[in-house]
């Protein structure tokens, strides 16, 4: 920068210039507040959770994990959570695909997408409150079924497995659908027209053309839907049987940390929960890599 | 558009629309059940309540102390919106305009809080906040809610800033504008629609954020959704209609902002926020 430096034989650029050449200057530093806050509020707690879970109040370093995996009341929560989240996620994603393909062709999608975004924004607590009413023995759902003579007596749909199941469908399906819709709309319609021109039937167009292009998006949709269903918490308490079949792993973690005040065990269960989610996500993304990867656009180059 | 006209594909289309209609009917039924119950006198086993009344709203307002709860809710939510807006937009600007080593890692750090469900990281985070002495207080709830809010603003704003031509800023510089006036007179007006969308969505998400607020709030720092949870949890103590009246109040406070937000964004974007940027 200085005149002296400019005059001397091979001028070595100043530190500031070398950094700027690599993309670091005053503007880059604007990223710091966000990074620092996220490191302090998210990354550090995550690391702290791991360390905390490995330093139990008494016993060896793995004592918390031993408690979890030897107590059937605790380790059965994993199966209970999977038993809820896997079927729900499969239904949500599989049903979302044909509907997204239909809605893609609609000219006025806005009303439908607005209705579907309601349960996502209102959240699980309100949906749980509404379902207690709607699915209850004297609610509209049972009344309608009895009106059409489909059942004789009201069926019990709240405070058991099906209540939580319904709440996960009501909030999870719109989520899976809107994500799938955004992926489906991202595929160039010209590709389908090309396939149709070459004589492909609807079924062939779907399985041979669309599905391979959609697999990456569907894998992400499945992972995000699954991760949400797996961490179900308020509706499992309000709509389920929180000490019985819907005692999901989130309830176990919450009770350990905030009812028994054993934050070390609570952190351990939260980590087991995170690892179980991670395992499923890794499996799904691993399966995805077996499929086609490439552009979903129709233009050349 | 390509349409098949065979019988099988007609049946298939009908089945798909039947599923959609059934789902929407049930969804609207769930919401309507809350609203109808909150304005009904007695509702036992009939299609509609015996009579209509507004007294549950007065009762709910008194019993659940909704005035202080609403004040606290909006204090928390607006604090989160302001802080996440300031921090998020500056970070997004740096990420959109500069390419530097470690950028992918930083974007990954911002993506994680949106992908990992709140309850998974919320428990150790709440433990730490309680140890730091802010757990159960106003700032504890705000800090907890900033974790998903800041990355959300950043990821919404990055594509928005990228589409503003940097030459506009350079031209302003050439004509002698200072950093402050470039920001106030060039960037801010261009960024305003995107910022409004991002901040309104943060507002709606924070209003509805149950898990993190539930884990970190105390008696004086509960937001409306957490109070609603406790009311439903202890149902039987209060009249069900009174709880539903409170649920309607919650619904209205959330939906007002959602309707505003939908003026700026497509509903699909609320879910698919981290869209890949369009190819250059």
Question: How many helix segments of chain A?
Answer: 14
Overall CATH architecture of the largest domain in chain B: Orthogonal Bundle
In terms of DSSP E residues, the strand content of chain A is under 5%
Biggest β-sheet description of chain A: none
Instruction: List segments of chain A where confidence is low: pLDDT < 50 over at least 5 consecutive residues.
Output: 1-7
Strand element count of chain B:
0
Count of individual helical segments of chain B = 12
What's the total count of β strands of chain A? 0
State the share of residues found in helices of chain A, binned by percent.
over 70%
Kindly report the name of the CATH homologous superfamily of the largest domain in chain B. MetI-like
Summing up helix and strand content along with how strands pair, one would put the structural category of chain A as mainly alpha
Rounded to the nearest angstrom, the distance between the terminal CA atoms of chain A is: 43 Å
Biggest interface goes to: A-B, 99 and 97 residues
> What characteristic shape of chain B results from the CA principal axes?
globular
Overview of this protein structure:
The complex is a heterodimer of chains A (301) and B (280). With 301 residues, chain A is mostly helical. Chain A has helices at residues 3-7, 15-21, 32-53, 63-70, 72-104, 110-122, 124-134, 140-147, 161-185, 189-197, 202-230, 234-238, 249-259, 263-288. Chain A is built from 14 helices and no strands. The two termini of chain A are 43 Å apart. Residues 1-7 of chain A have low confidence and may be disordered. Chain B has twelve helices and no strands. Chain B is 74% helix and 0% strand. Chain B folds into two domains: 7-53, no CATH class; 64-271, MetI-like fold (Orthogonal Bundle).
